[in-house]
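User: Teach me something about this protein's shape.
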Amino acid sequence: MRCPSCGFENLAGADCCEGCRQPLAGEEPAGPEDGLERDLRTDPVSLLAPARPITVSPNDTLGDVVQLLAERGIGCALVTWCDALVGIFTERDVLMKIGDRYAAMKDTPVRHFMTPMPEALKSEDSIAFALNRMAVGGFRHVPIEKDERPTGIISVRDVLGYLARHFPELLAGRG
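Assistant: First, the predicted structure itself:
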């Protein structure tokens, strides 16, 4: 059963959505049946045009990965091993886990600083489900996987762009 709140596909007979923990039985969510609310529930994350992920090895050094992020002007790299996603390393990891110790740690493998086994989405998951995952987990970047291999990455900026494209519709609804 697909959750009407976030679009997560639950097992038949489930009482609560595994994605957003909202009850599955009872009334449909309040609100209009068209517009932004409907689109958030039905539009897949593939509409956000996920960026091709930049991948690194868990054995790459912190210095090499930070340099790669800086050169590419990106906020994260996916850490893969044999094409499987094993971690994510973000600019937040640099600030929170390394800070002013960078010079002493730059030759250390990035696996010591990455967030292991990050949550990932499928390209057909709804944008509402992605927003829920980002909000609940405090994520600014979420990998997109197909067949357990990373194929893309979305960010809060991608979701904001999607919402901005709906902004004229939102204003029209207030008039």
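Now, about its shape. Residues 1-30 form one domain. The radius of gyration is 19 Å. If you'd like, I can walk through any region in more detail.
User: That's plenty for now, thanks!
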